[in-house]
Amino acid sequence: MPLPSIPPGLRALVVVVAASGLLVLVRVSVPLPDNLNLGPLFFWIVITLIAASLPVSLPGGVTATITTAPVLAAIFDPTLPQPFAACWTAFLGTFESRDFRRELPWYGTIYNRANWVLSAYAGWLAAHLAVPAVHAGDPLGTTAEIALVGGAFALVNHTLSLLAASARTQTPIGRVWALSLSNIFIGLISQVPLGWLMAEIATGVGQWAAVLFMVPLLLARYSFSRYTETRELFYGSVSALSQAIDAKDGFTRGHADRVSRIAGAVAREMGLPERQIEQIELAGLLHDIGKIGVEDRVLMKPSRLDSDEIELMRRHPMYGASILEPAAALRPLVPLVLHHHENFDGTGYPDGLKGEEIPLGSRIIIVADAYEAMTSDRIYRKAIGHERAIEQLHKYKGVQFDATVVRALDQLLQRRGPSAFDVSDLPPINYETLAELRRRLAREPIARDAHAG
């Protein structure tokens, strides 16, 4: 069946992974094992299905589940024929409600099933290879075996998940990792020893006792969902702060979104770690938040500022730093926001920092800020265009701008073009700015009625 609706990279990945999963499933099933025990196999499939019914969508396009533990339990269960039981538990037990409701495209369902089958097979293979080196009653050997099995399983499972999310969202794999799995990695890995323990309890005490381990699994699932909710709340707050300045200053509406995108792309072009890139993007969103503290007559003046007004406007990095400082989550952004108007030669403000004294994030933001300002219309001037903006950045590199950052932006734009920073997909801001509201109220009489309150 052709795959016309997905990117070629994702299409190739789906075909390779699906074919590999099918081959493994056929290989472990033909011929059928002689000592097949349907009771334990059915039990682990049902437990895995219950775990799979509680997925958590993470940032970056990855979905986290608590199915790792029961699938690994099927691998460790000595009463089951291997690798048949492990692979079929992984295949049948990992179906989610999204698959039956067709919330996922058909190729996504196939890819996910193949991912789990390959992961289970990798886990069984690690266990099979470790058997000769593990002796009965050796706790360290057993611990090493659990680590090998869990490591092989997690390596295949997480790698294939990250590759699919990266190809589907056209996002670098490092960014997908930083946004999703890196933040819940401990919770995911903790399922490995839990899977072994579930198998031991099921065979030594009884399957009913293994069901009790759903409690810690549900706690792990709760931690995944709390991380997602906390992150959404945090970014919602950051977005609200960013839009606060748009609500006051309609002349530069959308400026912070574009600066954030440009700064993030430049930082990625420079090969910075994803954690640092994320901070730079957040600082880009909030770099002008201090303008909330600038007087309206200065901020909304529809013409160039005089010297006194420029001095008042130059206070906004300090205001911004003061706004962000009390929040622990935003505190790492303070130096980036405070110094985003420092010039490379030391003539900037507020502290006159020079060269490497200026935080790298600030040096990136000032270039992104200048490029965005020069390529966007303002009420008092028209945009000068991409080519002239790049000329100006090169003209003042080493003076106002870090030459390394300017070169990175230039290389990025040569490869991707100016449309790389298009923000047409951002939701429109449909509220009335303070400036627009005041102009409208000056023209319209205020309606009065008899109601008090």
Low-confidence region ranges:
423-434, 444-453
Strand order of the largest sheet: 1-2
How are helices and strands ordered from N to C? HHEEHHHHHHHHHHHHHHHHHHHH
* Overall mean pLDDT: 85
Q: Would you tell me the structural class of the helices and strands?
A: mainly alpha
- Per CATH, the architecture of the largest domain is Orthogonal Bundle
Query: Which word captures the global form?
Result: elongated
Q: Beta-strand level of the residues, as a percent range?
A: under 5%
What is the strand and helix layout of this fold?
Layout: H1 8-29, H2 38-52, E1 56-58, E2 62-64, H3 68-76, H4 84-93, H5 97-100, H6 106-130, H7 139-169, H8 173-179, H9 181-189, H10 191-204, H11 207-211, H12 214-248, H13 255-269, H14 274-286, H15 296-299, H16 307-313, H17 316-324, H18 334-338, H19 360-374, H20 386-395, H21 403-416, H22 434-443
Antiparallel strand pairs: 1-2
Helix pairs in contact: 1-6, 1-7, 2-3, 2-4, 3-4, 3-6, 3-10, 4-6, 6-7, 7-8, 9-12, 13-14, 13-19, 13-21, 14-19, 19-20
